[in-house]
Amino acid sequence: MEKTLDTLDLTDASWNLLIHSYGPGEDENDPSVSKITDVDFGEQKLGKWKDIAATEDQLNELGVTDMLYVSGVGEYTTTFTLPEDWSDTTGAYLDVTYGKDQIGEITINGTALDANNASDRVDLGGYLVSGENTLTIKLSTTLYARMYAANSGYEGRDFGMVPDLCSQRIQRHSMMVY
Description:
Elements: E1 7-9, E2 15-24, E3 34-44, H1 56-62, E4 72-82, E5 92-98, E6 102-108, E7 111-113, E8 121-123, E9 131-140, H2 144-150, E10 170-177
Antiparallel strand pairs: 1-10, 2-3, 2-4, 4-9, 5-8, 5-10, 6-7, 6-9
C-alpha cells in the first residue's frame, strides 16, 4: 500500500465472532440480574446475527431457539497484513458501517481506541505496523431480541421510533490510508 488514498476493504475478510449473550438470570422476574453466556462462533462473514448458522448446542447454550433472539455484545476480530515499507508515520482511517447498534470498543494491536458512535470513522494513526495487524471491534446490541424470546406477544412489533429494532451486525469495514 502506498501513501496515497488506497483502501483496504475488510468487509469480506474472515472475522472471528465471540458473542457475549445477555439473558435472564436464575430469577427470571428480577430484571436487575442478567446471565452472560459466551459463545464463540468462529470464522464468520459480516452480517446479521439472525443469519448465523448456529448449531443446536450453541442455541441451547444461549438459551434461545433461534439466533433472532440473541442480545448482547459481539466481539469481531480479524487480522490483516500491511507491507514491509509501512511506516508508523503513515496514517489510516477505519470506516465502520453498522446498523442501529453501538460500537463499544475498537482495539488495534492490543491498544484500545476511542469509539465515537457519532462518527463512522476512527483514526488508526500510528497504531498500525508493517506485517500482521489484529483488529477487534465490540458491537453492543439492545436487549429487544432477548425480550422477544421471553415474550412472544411482542414478536414482530415495532417499538417507538426504531422500526429496524436491532440490526446486530457490522455491515462494512474499510481502511483508507492518508
